[in-house]
Design brief:
It is found in: Membrane. The protein contains 17 helices and 2 strands. The chain is an all-alpha fold. A two-stranded antiparallel ribbon has the order 1-2. The N terminus is likely disordered.
Length: 477
Amino acid sequence: MADDPERQIGPQKAQEVPVEKPPTEPDNDNETAPSFESPFDLPNWRKWINTVLLASMTMAVTFGSSVWSSTIAVTSKEFNVSETVSILGVSLYVLGFALGPIVWGPMSEFKGRRLPLFSGFFVWLLLQIPIGVVNNLPALLVCRLLGGCFGAAPVGLVSAMYADFWEPAERGIATAIYSAAVYIGPTLGPVFGSLVTENPSLGWHWTAWLTLIIGGVVGILAFLVVPETYGPVLKQRAELKARNATRTPSQGSYSMQSPSFRDFVGKYMVKPVLMLCYEPMLMVMTLYVAIVYGILYLTFYAFPYSFTEGRGWDPRVGTLPFLSILVSVLAGSVGVAFYSKKYYQPRLVARGHVLPEDRLPLVMLGSVILPAGLFWFGWCSSSHVSPVPQIIAGLFIGCGIMLIFTNCVAYIVDIYLQSAASALAANTFVRSAVAAGFPLAAPRMYKQLGISWATSVLGFLYGHKLRQISRYAPTPA
């Protein structure tokens, strides 16, 4: 396979997008294509502001996914249901992460990134209001499911947006920031959630109001600052503007051609499914990331259960060991940034194009660290053993998850580029569907197997040739 220009160090080539043209307008093939401001040409300071704001949107949504876990004991008693039923508040929200990208990812490839990103995010914000006032469990669970569907917009689109304006080396650092946000949000959720839930003057409803405040601040800032970043749509808009500028009022104006619902379903929504079915590397990486992502969401039950039930700690104190995962996620982000600058970028410059497999050494490292941390956590859980080793094990769990997730996502983006949104939609669908099931199994698993063996089960769970036969990857072999 010859070197593809999209893989070279430089801006991506914009694809042609059809424009509806009035039949009376003569063709003018000799017209010079209008220029437009490429997102790659934005100053670095603005790129980093966009990167942080987009990641913050993801953090707010993922914070909302886990903050409900702090209400499980309270809501199960208030509504007279089992803990498994109450945990549906987490599982249905994460299931929404699986369903939402089926629409948001493909839509972003013909409507641009901003419309699906902010439409989904602001509807997600509004859904926090009924969660904050309703006292009916079925209604709450429906709102949680819908919240996950609409909140999936930033979760599924942000890492693809980074490919719109970052070169490959810097994209690895940006993806590390995104991945840190994906894990910082759900790590802080149980900590802050338990503080408001156990506060008599606030109560569990305030988990929704807290989520609304956080999301509202970052969402408004991002809406005012983050521009459209998808090259093909920007080129299309520039062409329309140039053509309309040369027309008289009596001639009317050009308009963008939007696909019919049938075309949207047949061409765009089916694309992630086809990629998942026919792309062997996407299948493998998606399955691996799904297991890792499921382990993260299972820890939302495992950590509080281990320290409150196993060690008899107060619920508010029992969630603080989550901070060890937060520290390790930040450390992993720094490690990924260092690797991108000192190893990935020099190889990229020397070769002249991207080799996605350069992302994989950190995945291999994480695949060793994560199961080691799980076994360590499980077998240091006895109340007769100091809690310090178990908290240290959280550092290994968080670091392993971070290294695997960050570099797997960057690897997928490096392979598929302008099809990355569809590839990540497929990845997000599977990993979120798996993660939705893990918390439901947690209560029975930990109560019947005990902390040591239940966590060990997770540890046991735990290329180039595949990419060569890819249908959608423009990567040189």
